[in-house]
Amino acid sequence: MSLLKKFLTYTNLQSEMDDYDVIHTNIQKDIIFKGTNLWILVFAIFIASIGLNMNSTAVIIGAMLISPLMGPINGMGYSIATYNFALFRKALKNFIFAVIASLFASTLYFLLSPLSTAHSELLARTSPTIYDVLIALFGGLAGIVAISSRQKGNVIPGVAIATALMPPLCTAGFGLANGDMNFFLGAFYLFTINTVFIGISSVLISRFLKFPITNLVAEGQKTKVVRWTSFIIAITLIPSIYFGYALVEAERFTENANKFIAEVSVFEGSYLLKNEIDARNKQITLIYGGSDLSKENKVEITKRASVYALAKAKLTFKQGFSYNEGKESVNQIDKLKTEVNRLNLALKEKQKTTDSIISKPQIGKQLLGEVKTLFPEIKSCSYSETVAFQDSTKTDKVKIVVMETTKKGLTSDARKRINEWLKKRLETEKVKTFFE
């Protein structure tokens, strides 16, 4: 029982909650888009658009940090939870104004920008999935909890980054500027997901914290609010589930396709030069070089695809170059021969290095055969090379010789003579000799 009490104490939000009037004032203040808030929004839009245009993640994060877009969204969620319809209309009006202003600013920027390439940061905003729903929901929960608490900390900036309201709007502006409706619709849908589920999280926390309802509301109006809220959640959520499923399927297809390609990279004298995987349309293009693939070869490769759950995938075979195509492939074959010769030379150089490394331990055997005739007390000899570091920049190559002697051992004069002989024999003064 005491453990449960401790858990409830640690997880209690009421103890750190700010005064209701302060929360209401803060939310109401952040709803308004005029003066400072409006200019900050416009500047944030231009910064985010530049970041997307330059494919700079750091710049995009900076824009998200200063964006005031979350204010009216939290206001709408809070007003729904407290049935404050006047505040809801005000928040909605300001939100629509902010969206239109953002779209106008981003579209204007991309119309004037000389760069029109769709980089990865832009493309990432056009394919929303169920995972974006979860990010928006949990980010929104963190945001409204922070707004309600006396100890706000640095949660609000973090929520602004996680939920990413600004980049999808800018990407939608890019779509409008370039006449690409796929970009516009995909990005605007992601923005809608973030908006709806941040708002829903505000509703949930506002209800959980029992924010006071100041207006008299009929049961019929409450039912109407619940129905509309449920409807908006459904129409926003269902497409994201489909896109999420498609994303998982595409990842699985790509993984299986890579395993399959690794198996058929060499097949009956043909070598896979290049491959292309189109997970969306379930297509795999295989470009082979070397001998022509026969129909039987293609059938066999297609059969192997079914082992990797790719039976329904469309395989396209192409010939990059062929040994038996005749005169038209002479240049390609000459290029191939040149490349093969270059690789052979590189391989020989590598082999020389490898042989040198392998043969070095055998030097000990040679030294033993030569020194033992004069000093039969030596039983064994081993040889190796290493590098001695004097500081972070200066190094010396050192040769190490270890000689094992009989119980009789060697005199100090004999050891000195052997050491001098080794320096001449190995043609270096950098010799370390050890006697055991």
Question: What do you see in this structure?
Answer:
The chain has 436 residues and is of the alpha/beta class. Among the domains are: 12-215, Up-down Bundle (Glycerol uptake facilitator protein), CATH 1.20.1080; 361-435, GMP Synthetase, Chain A, domain 3 (2-Layer Sandwich), CATH 3.30.300. The protein is 63% helix and 13% strand. The chain contains 16 helices and seven strands. The chain has helices at 2-10, 20-31, 36-54, 57-66, 70-81, 85-112, 120-123, 130-148, 155-163, 166-177, 181-208, 219-263, 295-307, 330-359, 363-371, 412-425, and strands at 266-267, 270-278, 283-290, 314-322, 378-389, 395-405, 431-435. Strands 1-2-3-4 form a four-stranded mixed β-sheet. A hairpin with a 5-residue loop joins strand 5 and strand 6 (395-405). Helix 5 (70-81) packs antiparallel against helix 6 (85-112), helix 6 packs across helix 10 and helix 8 packs antiparallel against helix 9 (155-163). The radius of gyration is 36 Å and the shape is elongated. The chain starts with a helix and ends with a strand.
Question: Which key phrases capture this entry?
Answer:
single chain; 436 residues; alpha/beta; Glycerol uptake facilitator protein; GMP Synthetase, Chain A, domain 3; 4-stranded mixed beta sheet; 3-stranded mixed beta sheet
User: CATH class of the domain at 12-215, anyone?
Assistant: Mainly Alpha
How would you sum up the global shape? elongated
Average pLDDT level = 78
Structural class: alpha/beta
Residues in helix, %: 55-70%
Largest sheet: 4 strands, mixed
Walk across the major sheet and give the strand order.
1-2-3-4
Order of helices and strands: HHHHHHHHHHHHEEEHEHHEEHE
What would the CATH topology of the domain at 12-215 be?
Glycerol uptake facilitator protein
Question: Whole-number radius of gyration?
Answer: 36 Å
CATH architecture of the domain at 12-215: Up-down Bundle
Strand percentage? 5-15%
Number of helices: 16
Cα distance spanning the termini: 72 Å
Q: How many strands appear in the DSSP assignment? A: 7
Low-pLDDT parts are: none
